[in-house]
Protein: Riboflavin biosynthesis protein Rib7
Organism: Macroventuria anomochaeta
Amino acid sequence: MAAPVREALHFPQLSISQIDPYIPKPGVRHPNKPYGRPHVTLTFATSLDSQLSLVPGAQTALSGPESKAMTHYLRSKHDAILIGVGTAEADNPSLNCRFEGVGGYGGEGLQGQPRPVVIDPRGRWRFTAECKVLKLARGGKGKAPWIFTMAPIDDERRELLESVGGQVIVAGPQPSTRRLSWGYILDELERRDIESAMIEGGGAVINDLLSPRNIRFVDTVIVTIAPTWLGQGGVQVCPKERVENGAKVPVARLKDVRWVPLGDDVVLCGLAPRD
Ligand SMILES: NC(=O)C1=CN([C@@H]2O[C@H](COP(=O)(O)OP(=O)(O)OC[C@H]3O[C@@H](n4cnc5c(N)ncnc54)[C@H](O)[C@@H]3O)[C@@H](O)[C@H]2O)C=CC1
Ligand SMILES: Nc1nc(O)c(N)c(N[C@@H]2O[C@H](COP(=O)(O)O)[C@@H](O)[C@H]2O)n1
């Protein structure tokens, strides 16, 4: 038997069996998909006061070791991992999978590594060769990112990205000049053979996807809830309200819900509703 890789994360089989019903199956299309768009798992870690971080522009460790291992198990089961540029700037994230047995962590090549995708409509991500995600790609421990943008990216950064296998995807005319539509993003991912995407954040991305007009793009929600309050002034998950016939109604309620305790945290799994 191969020796365990020192930095690799392990998620026990018992926990895997509880999470697996919410995970996309390779080659099996979600029944709600009108046609071939990727399966979307919205997943993040939150405090008891529904916050992702203590202050905007900073990273806050919320997940304990067990739920962090669960996140990496999820990463191993999705073709892509998507974040907004606010998170790319704030966190300098790795966006790879450190789950035992995937490529770079005991496995072959880049097998089981998700494709990082950064939504950056204005081209404001100031990545350098020293960014973790680029260094990992260069070292064969993760895939290089794809950047969705509506702005030109300078040649120097484009070449740097492409040198490690990344790509700039320049969006054509969008219905609104300030935003990239989720339909467009998901269609472009589908065209590039992405069958499943986990969307990790941050606040603007999650609130946008949970908004009444966009929740239809989400299939599954997996949220780690940490036993802590961060206090006002952080990055909050609180989507736009939904109004029907002049009265406020809940934006959405998950279906087929399961609560999975993992260490000090609890992980909420559910299916997004379909009207
Ligand atoms: N606890 C957790 O699980 C996570 C926490 N975070 C935290 O969240 C914070 C970052 O959140 P935010 O500042 O809200 O940044 P964000 O990552 O949501 O990015 C926001 C930016 O993304 C772009 N964007 C988002 N939706 C778009 C759309 N539909 N079309 C076009 N562009 C779109 C816009 O440029 C927007 O300014 C950081 O503090 C980070 O640490 C981020 C991810 C997960
Ligand atoms: N699951 C989870 N728990 C937390 O406590 C977090 N702060 C986050 N943040 C997300 O994970 C990304 C960092 O991932 P790497 O370990 O650097 O690969 C970060 O960008 C957020 O998307 N997630």
Remarks:
- The chain has seven helices and 13 strands.
- The longest strand covers residues 39-46.
